[in-house]
Amino acid sequence: MKTQVLLGVLVLAALDPMWAQLVSSHPSTQPVNQTTTIAQPAGKPVARVNGTALTDRDLAREMYTIFPYAKQHNGAVPKEMEDGIRNGAMQMIIFEELVYQQALRRKLTIPPARLQSAEKDFRGQFSSPQEYQQVLQSDFQGSEKVLREKVLRSLLIDALLKIEVDNKAIVSLVEERGYYDKNPARFHVPEAFAIQTISFIAPEKATPQQLVEARKKAENALPQAKAAKSYEEFGLLAEKVSEDDYRVMMGDHKAIPRTQVAPQVLQALLAMKPGDVSGVLQVAQVYTIIRLNKHIPASKVKFEDVKAQLKTELTKQKTNQVRAALDKKLRQNAKIEVL
């Protein structure tokens, strides 16, 4: 089977947790500079969980899920990342097996219609019956029964995780609001100034004459800057004569926090109204003219504006905590051997 076709299956594994549990990977063993290559899996045991063997196929599949970049690069993994990826993959396949065994102990069941639907979905990922048969041979010993068992295993893992993780990691509106109220600094928006500039820059170690020349350029541009009646007029002038990098953006610096503004510039800005243009200001070897577009007072982001983001963030955090607690609980009385 061509590598390109296999990569399509592996992409599916990265997108869907069930298929990530189900499909093994077949990377090339071609060496790549400054990388190591995920070895071709051969079905060799790499760990045992309560007597059940987990193989290098399981490990390789999980390594590709953790580091999908390798799928497009013949199995190549940066050498400095290999141990971390391998160890993370090992812990994950052990966790999956512990979850599966717990699902069996609790006698969880999958409705036949759900199992049939999952099998149909899996077959539907292939472009032809021949391609499906190739994967069936390489990944499932050529057996529809083995495939069905693998699909069932994945569905049982998902079912138990839904009960023990997803349902326990739901974040309430009260929790979202509590986090918001307890972390005011995170939602503080500092005082800032939205400005445009026209600047003339003397060399870093400028001579007195070079400083005079830079100031003269600024003074010559000042009447035109003062005459600009709008953001656009000032911006067009900045594009034409300014020497700083902001000239390509019509001199627009967007909003700059007060704490990042030079003292002499801050003094000028505090005396200006939106639309005002300063005189020539010197900051080190830079002579600049500033247009104040907006003085933005300090404020706090409204809860309504961040609650959706908070829900996502806190749910992820809680999910990780609940999942880690489940992993610890399942390991307490388990016999785990890493070979």
CATH class group of the largest domain: Mainly Alpha
Percent of residues in beta strands: 15-25%
Number of strands: 11
- Count the DSSP helices: 12
- Quaternary assembly: single chain
Report Rg: 31 Å
How many angstroms separate the termini?
30 Å
CATH topology of the largest domain: Triger factor/SurA peptide-binding fold
Strand order, main sheet: write it out.
Answer: 7-6-9-8
Query: What does the largest sheet look like?
Result: 4 strands, antiparallel
Structural class: alpha+beta
**What is the overall shape?**
elongated
CATH homolog superfamily of the largest domain: Porin chaperone SurA, peptide-binding domain
Q: What's this, in brief?
A:
With 339 residues, the chain is α+β, with helices and mostly antiparallel strands. The chain contains twelve helices and eleven strands.
Description:
- It is a single chain.
- This protein is of the alpha+beta class.
- The chain folds into two domains: 165 residues, Triger factor/SurA peptide-binding fold (Orthogonal Bundle), CATH 1.10.4030.10; 107 residues, Roll (Chitinase A, domain 3), CATH 3.10.50.40.
- Helix content is 54%, strand content 15%.
- The chain contains twelve helices and eleven strands.
- The strands form four sheets. A four-stranded antiparallel β-sheet has the order 7-6-9-8, with helices on both faces.
- Helix 3 crosses helix 4, helix 4 crosses helix 7 and helix 8 packs across helix 12.
